[in-house]
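User: quick one
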Amino acid sequence: MTRRAVLGTLGAVGVAAVAGVTATSSAAAQALGQNEPIEAALRRVFGGRPMKDGRGVIKLDAPLIAENGAVVPVSVEVDAPMTPQRYVKHIYIVADKNRIPVVARAVLTPDSGQAYVGANIRLGESGSVRAIVEQSDGTLLQVTREVRVTVGGCGG
Amino acid sequence: MSDVGKVRLRLPSSIKAGDIVRVRCLVIHPMERIERDASGKIVDKKYRYIDKVSVTYLGKAIASFDTTQSVSENPIFAFTFKATEPGKLSVTFHDTHGATYEGSAEVRFG
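Assistant: Done. Structure below.
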């Protein structure tokens, strides 16, 4: 075996190991510096489940133009009941163009009273910001907003 | 950066029983971004950022956040809770270096 072949094999093993880790871990635990495209991130988190259009139900509040990508206030409000039988379980905030696209996941309970979360996020460049809502019965809803960023905030 | 870990909670000034209350909380934290060296390679180190936020009210977990480095420095999180009785609302932040920061507020009616 040549040196090149050995290194190539090692590299493949490394990639496989990383893939194995991320497949089982939560949205929060991505491998270091993972330059993950949005499609891969969504597939990993939601496993290709169908997503409905959440317009009219989800209110995603984000600035049209964010002057500073390092601090972009985003809030998500869902017009849905929060009863023990049926409630909003997760709210995901996703930034399509970020190297780490899944920004945050909120886990809610019926005691939250209302499905509302807000956070200050980073945006690397102009692009879509999505809010994806998972209800307790597994229904997925999403809305998208375009945000223009003047100065990127993700660094490297 | 001696302020790291300072937590501030902001509640509305008057809360009535049964209200759904919006809370904003701020934590002072660097939320380190991925760094690259001159050749563009990612610096391999354990980055320090908050990866978990949990909210409890009257000792019961009501919401939590799983966060990544895509969240800004000195992050602000907003959430709601249903004020059923007076008591303690507390928010705990956990970072990747194992540190935890806690902030709390007393919920009073009136």
